[in-house]
Specification:
18 helices; about 450 residues; mainly alpha; single chain
Length: about 450
């Protein structure tokens, strides 16, 4: 027998790497799929275990990828994000912070974080979400794995929408007694949080659908993907979430701008997206959601609503303008500055950027904003100029979903919910993975070691 030439023998790395990456990717997807199950209605204890489980798997993959120069944010985004992590670590150091009699009374703070235990818990969550990002970027560089992963997210969104619709109509029981029957909530307590996850699935589904068409997928698979998108959109309508619907409209308009190559097609796609959004407003929206949109002005002027909560958050930030009160401490300190018209204790500021400003100060907000911009700008450029059309379409759906997330986060706190934060981080990592340069990235072990030391 004659031996095969060396060029015909597949390298060992090609035989070993894909199965391992596929198994790890399936394990990460399974944990993420479990995130919005009944645990979405559970108290902080089970959520902490969920974050630890996702973070443990993601961190193992992420650390290996970081040490090999894969999975990390683009070099411009690495520095501000690393400094942001160092700021969070500094909040836990035993350094006396500035006195604030209005918040602390006669007590003298011993840390930059006024509640170090809260900051430590939120810091673990933050590392877990970054692990999801890095693991997705390392594992989902293959377009095939990216398609399967996005299919999991779209299927999850469709399943939650169908279950929520059946529970809304009384055909299935609710997960928790605190859930309302008047709107669609599925496994969530807050309809806005469900609307964000459904919008995330619908928008990445658009990219998946376009990529499957580009590949010439069978009509049955295209029909199944389209049905999943339709179910997720109907679920958003059923939630009657104003922020969710506006975010979905923004994502639909952003997708053709990212997916089309020529300016003429981008303009045509934007016109189609705007027309679809207007048509949905005129014909598809139920009367209840239309009434909620018409009542926005009155709600903003009424006492005890989001406007007063935002005023309290700004007042809290004014007490600690530079380094904040500590990550995760807003719920403990908000009663000291919130207006009297706001009833009870406000756990979150109903605005993720504003809550971040109060908890990490101007330094943390600017560092994280710089990291987001340094990530988004090169990703958009790569998406518009990528040679592989399938990868560009998959990334366009992910970027549209991230744009919708940013819009929705202005008036909601869905990034404080483990399921929403984990899936958002994974979608961002997927975008970074599929748009990775075909050349192997140089190893940057210092970045992984620095993150490990900061943790």
């Amino acid at each position: 027998m004659t031996a095969l030439p060396a060029t015909c023998a597949p390298p060992r790395a090609a035989l070993a790497a894909p199965p391992a990456a596929a198994v790890l990717g399936m394990l990460l997807a399974a944990l993420l799929l479990a995130a919005p199950l009944p645990l979405a209605c559970a108290p902080a204890g089970p959520r902490a275990w969920l974050a630890a489980g996702v973070g443990a798997v993601a961190a193992a993959v992420a650390l290996a990828g970081l040490l090999r120069g894969r999975g990390a944010p683009p070099p411009p985004a690495a520095l501000p994000f690393g400094l942001f992590l160092l700021l969070i670590a500094a909040q836990l150091l035993p350094i006396a912070g500035p006195a604030a009699p209005e918040v602390l009374g006669d007590a003298v703070p011993t840390h930059l974080s006024l509640v170090p235990a809260r900051t430590a818990a939120r810091g673990i969550d933050l590392l877990a979400w970054f692990g999801c990002f890095a693991a997705a970027a390392a594992l989902l560089a293959s377009a095939r794995r990216a398609r399967r992963f996005l299919g999991c997210l779209l299927g999850l969104a469709a399943a939650l929408a169908v279950y929520g619709l059946l529970a809304w109509q009384g055909a299935l029981p609710l997960v928790d007694a605190q859930q309302p029957r008047t709107v669609l909530v599925a496994t969530f307590v807050n309809r806005n949080h469900l609307a964000h996850l459904l919008g995330l699935g619908a928008l990445v589904g658009l990219g998946l659908f376009a990529a499957l068409r580009q590949r010439g997928a069978p009509p049955a698979l295209l029909a199944l993907t389209g049905a999943g998108i339709a179910a997720a959109v109907l679920g958003i309508v059923g939630t009657q979430s104003r922020g969710g619907f506006v975010a979905l409209a923004v994502g639909i308009c952003a997708f053709p701008l990212l997916a089309m190559r020529s300016r003429r097609r981008r303009r045509a796609g934007l016109a189609i997206g705007l027309t679809a959004a207007i048509a949905a407003v005129l014909w598809l929206l139920p009367a209840g959601l239309l009434q909620r949109f018409s009542a926005v002005g009155g709600e903003l002027q009424a006492p005890g609503t989001r406007t007063d909560i935002w005023r309290g958050a700004i007042a809290l930030w004014a007490q600690f303008p530079w380094t904040g009160t500590g990550l995760g401490t807003f719920g403990d300190l908000s009663p000291a500055t919130q207006p009297a018209a706001v009833p009870g204790r406000v756990e979150h500021a109903h605005s993720d950027p504003l809550e971040l400003l109060a908890e990490t100060g101007a330094a943390g907000a600017l560092l994280l904003a710089a990291a987001v911009l340094a990530f988004a700008v090169p990703m958009v450029r790569r998406c518009l100029g990528h040679r592989d059309r399938e990868r560009a379409l998959l990334a366009a759906g992910g970027l549209a979903a991230l744009a919708a997330t940013a819009v929705h986060a202005l008036v909601e706190f869905h990034l404080q919910i483990p399921a929403n934060a984990a899936w958002t981080a994974a979608v961002a990592g997927l975008v970074a993975g599929v748009l990775r340069s075909p050349r192997p990235a140089p190893a940057r072990p210092w970045f992984g070691v620095a993150l490990l030391a900061a943790g």
